[in-house]
Fold each of these.
Amino acid sequence: MKTFLIRSVLSLFAAVALPIAAQTPAVNPPTFVKGDITIQYNTRTTTPIAHGTKDVYTINVNVCNSALFHGTVTDLPQLIEGWVSKGVTQNRVLTYDLQADLMNPKNPTQVRNVGRLFGTVPQLVPVAQQIEALTFQPIYTVYLQYPEQIRLPHAMLGFDRCFTQWIFDKGQIAGHQGLIAAVISAEGLHQKLDHEQLAKKVVQELREQLGIMEKPLWHQILAEKRATFSCEPNLSRPTHITPLTNVLLAGDYTAGEYPATLEGAVMSGIRCAEKINNSQISTSTPLHLNPAVLP
Ligand SMILES: Cc1cc2nc3c(=O)[nH]c(=O)nc-3n(C[C@H](O)[C@H](O)[C@H](O)COP(=O)(O)OP(=O)(O)OC[C@H]3O[C@@H](n4cnc5c(N)ncnc54)[C@H](O)[C@@H]3O)c2cc1C
């Protein structure tokens, strides 16, 4: 009986003591980032820079004895050469191969590799080159804020033989009264004008085509230089599948029936979704690359 009582008292003490201990503020572990990055500036020690000469960054960083990052980054510079006309004789190539390890701060001998960030997946190189070969077309949007009573005969209109191609009445579309957006797609003469001149040109066309005599209160031009990929005859576009079964490409630029359009982007997404549905690819499975195939 006595033994039982003593045990009970001890248990009670333990039950009370544990929450008290848990509430004791933990001493914060020291925070630090330490390590080194060694840089071999090979491109700075040779003149002129020979083809193939690269800078090599060797990285070894420890974050609070919790995460370790180590590996290399190499930078092959772009070379522009020539006596009469200069041109690119070597493209810049940045490659990286960095390991990420997690470390148990209480026992630094316990280290587990959790990931690898690398610049080149050999199987995807041809696809990456195909994407890099795409060229782009601009789209300019000229916003003109007219007095609120200005309204187009339709929410959207097309102009023929003008700089302006399409105009949108944002009042009718989105309730922003008097705001007209003029859209000019692809390369053209409009690119020779500065923004001020282009805004004046569009205002003139609206006057000539629709009789809008008022002056806009303000204007703003958004010039997106790489608005869409350039959809040319016989253009080689990547398919949505790649040599890696669990890497799929979705986007308007993938092979399909449409040029760079919302429809093309949606169709591409549907193709990828169908592929995932009809195959063993699991959306919950993280991308896993067999280390044996990596460089
Ligand atoms: C000004 C303009 C007007 C257009 N007008 C029309 C039109 O009238 N009709 C029409 O059909 N199409 C039009 N288009 C084209 C249409 O917008 C595109 O075809 C469509 O949006 C492409 O969809 P997407 O999903 O392939 O790519 P995006 O819409 O470009 O989406 C790609 C997304 O990926 C993100 N992203 C990129 N890199 C990274 C990264 N490294 N990490 C994380 N995120 C990243 C981007 O921020 C972006 O949100 C127009 C385009 C522009 C620019």
Amino acid sequence: MEDNKIKKCCICGREFVGYGNNPDGAAWMDQFGRPQLPEFKEDDVCCDECDGMYVVPGRIYRMRLRQEEAKKAKGEAKNAETAD
Ligand SMILES: [Zn+2]
């Protein structure tokens, strides 16, 4: 059975049994406090712990990042309009 196979978490490297989670969207800070936004392969899976620790917050973080960028782009467009 596919779900009884031992899988290796692509984030922490630990082996686990079960379906695993899609790690897409995971993000974390490195030891210097810089945000890491890794890309994952299609067959990558992560364990439940990393899902809760990096994937769920990472997706929220990336969403906020996109919103900030959109806001910034909008602000810049506005500045360009009023520059003349
Ligand atoms: Zn893990």
